[in-house]
Design a protein that fits this description.
Shape: globular
Low-confidence stretches: 46-52
Largest sheet: 5 strands, mixed
Number of domains: 1
Order of helices and strands: EEEHHHHEEEHHEEHH
Number of helices: 8
CATH class: Alpha Beta
Strand content: 15-25%
CATH architecture: 3-Layer(aba) Sandwich
Strand order of the largest sheet: 4-5-6-7-8
Helix content: 40-55%
Length: about 250
């Protein structure tokens, strides 16, 4: 994947942000910095059980040991397609003939969208990312949005509270927008969950402060592991976790 550069409008001036094929980000030709997704990978504690149960059910019903792998590929492809359709609607007003898109549109039609698929860069914490959209909700003001597709039965069974990693991801984008002094500074951040069967879509607002605390904890863990690797003293992740928690308690 080739590098792409976007010009992000700030309250005073502009910022050129470049993303490479490894989803790293830079400004002004400086060092490449990691993405939100890379730094967020240590938050997964609330997702394993749901995923394991879904995988077991899929294999049991299909009798195919490769069912999970094939389903994951299909989910990724369908998710990418939906993101492209939403982006095309926001930027060009094109309405897709897709039940999942229609469900999204029914939930979002009151929103006046301002931008979609835009790069962000945190100038202090040195990370980048790409948010899904920002828009003005007539009842709540400028809102940062993220789109997630879900299987309806598992979504309703597991509960509709946003996963911790999802909260952290969106909070990191919001803080980047604030710290880079973007013209799009959200008052709130919302995840829109769209059911893969096209039955409905629902919004869930996240706690940005809580999400950012989670993200910074994961970012600190990432830095600790990188330091350990640089010293050629690779430790099992569980030991790294214990040492980090111990240092925080003692500190």
């Amino acid at each position: 994947m080739a590098s792409e550069t976007q010009e992000h409008i700030l309250t005073h001036g502009t910022m050129e942000i470049t993303r490479n094929g490894r989803h790293q980000y830079t400004i002004d030709g400086g060092p490449w910095q990691p993405s939100v997704s890379t730094l967020n990978k240590y938050i997964a504690g609330d997702t394993f059980g749901v995923g394991a149960n879904w995988a077991a059910k899929l294999i049991r019903e299909s009798g195919d040991m490769d069912a999970v792998k094939n389903s994951n590929r299909q989910v990724v492809a369908e998710g990418n397609q939906l993101h492209e359709q939403i982006n095309k609607y926001i930027q060009q007003g094109v309405v897709a003939e897709n039940p999942v898109f229609v469900a999204w549109l029914a939930a979002m039609q009151r929103v006046e969208f301002l931008a979609s698929e835009r790069f962000v860069y945190h100038p202090q914490l040195l990370y980048g990312g790409t948010f899904d959209a920002v828009g003005i909700d007539p009842d709540h003001g400028l809102t940062l949005y993220d789109w997630k597709t879900r299987q309806r039965d598992s979504f309703e069974k597991a509960g509709s509270i946003p996963r911790l990693a999802e909260q952290a991801q969106l909070a990191a984008y919001a803080h980047a927008l604030w710290e880079m002094d973007s013209v799009w500074q959200p008052i709130r951040a919302v995840i829109c969950y769209i059911m893969r069967d096209g039955s409905y879509a629902v919004e869930r607002e996240i706690d940005i402060d809580q999400g950012m605390r989670l993200f910074e904890a994961s970012r600190n863990m990432h830095s600790l592991v990188k330091e350990a690797q640089a010293r050629n003293t690779l430790l099992p992740r569980g030991r790294v976790v214990r040492e980090l928690l111990g240092s925080q308690i003692l500190g």
